[in-house]
Design a protein that fits this description.
This protein is of the alpha/beta class. The chain has one domain: Rossmann fold (3-Layer(aba) Sandwich). A four-stranded parallel β-sheet has the order 2-1-3-4, with helices on both faces. Helix 1 packs across helix 4 and helix 4 packs antiparallel against helix 5. The termini are far apart. The model has no long low-confidence stretch (mean pLDDT 94).
Length: 136
Amino acid sequence: MRRVPALLVMHADLGEAMLHAARQVYGPVEDVEALSNAEYSRDGLEHAIEERIARWPHGGLLLCDFPGGSCQQCSLLAARARTRGPDAEIVIVTGTNLSALLDYLHNREKYGVVELAERVQKKAQDSVRVQRGQSA
């Protein structure tokens, strides 16, 4: 199975910070980039995403911080423009957190793009918990 590449498209320096934290836990990371919306217009961000995903002949994941924002919107437009079929699909996962990123890194050679995206989504959702410090 091929390694599924990913691009973190996030606000400010969140993507770089998440990659830094992931490297502290996981070790060296290859085939993953972070792209911030801070230095781009909407059109510029979409173009920057398109440039990066053009290097993915077999598809990959766009990992965004939250739904509805410019990062997710531009990712969606870039992915639609790039669609080349089921073997080269670009899938967007919003709400990506550190748990999801680490799960992606551990499993990106075991699953295809769609299956991996679904797994990352579940991991992100499952990692959000409410715990109270009070004794029962």
